[in-house]
Amino acid sequence: MQKIYYGWIIVGVGILVKMTGLGFGRFAYPMLIPNMRGSLGFNYIEMGLLSGAMMLGYLIFSLVGGMLATRFGPKRIVIASLLCGSLSMFFISKLSGFIPLLFFTFAMGAGGAGAHISMTTLPMAWFEEQRLGRALGLVTGGTGLGIIVTGLLLPFLLSNLGKEAWRHCWFLLALITFGVAITGWILLREKPISMAPPLPNRYGDKKWIPISKEESGIPLKGIFFIYFVFGFAYNIYATYFVAYMVEEIQLPEKIAGNIWALFGWMCMGSGLIWGFLSDRLGRRKALLWDNGIIAFSVLLPLLLHQPFFLGLSAFFFGATFLGTVTIIAAAIGDQVFDKKAFIYGGVTLIHGIGQFLGTISGGYLKDLTGTFQLTFIVSLTGFLLCIFLTALIKKG
Predict the structure, then answer these.
(1) 99, exposed or middle or buried, with CB in 10 Å at 0-12, 13-18, 19+?
(2) CATH entry 1.20.1250.20 includes domain 6-187
(3) Could you point out which of 70, 84, 115, 245 has its C-alpha 20 to 30 Å from the C-alpha of 176?
């Protein structure tokens, strides 16, 4: 019986790390806001500040986490970050004061960033270029898994455990995250003894001939530009699409929620699909197709308001969102330098700044015009600019 290459064990643990570090650490909070606010007596400004502290922790430690992973090794930072996230969730479940909660939401965002950056760069040491895209795609899918788990588990707990249900939710998420940290401590390894054997090509040769990097690669400068614009454009859609359906198109909240659930389900497999395609087609061509489809997903709700087309928009958006994240990570993994974690942390920081500016700009345009139309036109323009930059910026 053929022995399983240990790199795939690393990928399996990576899925759990992304599920807890990002899926729980960043995407559980919005679902718990109403229950937390009612229990704690906070206003929406205070709840927004807690969310902002989480985002600030994520942005700062995107870069710091990469620096630490470069110096101390990604495995140590993954474990430390998960423990930080787990302890933060535990204390959030026990505390009621605004200032302590502000500190621990910041720490939870920092833990999510450290786990995300380090776990993304860890498989880069285990897989050659032909397999790296699909390996990173599987790991990235852990974020979608986290969104699905919280989407199924938390509403059930919130509806059955009363006014303080949010505390039970955070405590349970803390336990799961702690369990994943222990699993990672046991199973994660930083450097392989040997790489996986090369993929055979269709002619039966054992050596796989990759696409020329001149044709398929994306230079580092281009990655920074593209990922910034992508963060700006995607966060506008991600933040305001449900509000657009409910407030402007006047869909019932239940239908809008069902449509948005498609986004989470499609995220689950999108990283793997686009990682595989980027291995086959090259990073540049896969990114062009990915951004073309995501641009189409933003165009749909601007032109067609029927639930079917809105659902199709969420379907395509979920099917492509993590594709860009995976392709960018794989493009960095293709580069030849030692400080991949530091570079990826810097790229993620720029991406996060784009998200922050996109959210502010989208809200400002809605207040200025009274409609979401211009907000989504700006998002669409951003994705079209990503296509232009990807096609324009050449290797070297």
Answers:
(1) exposed
(2) yes
(3) 70
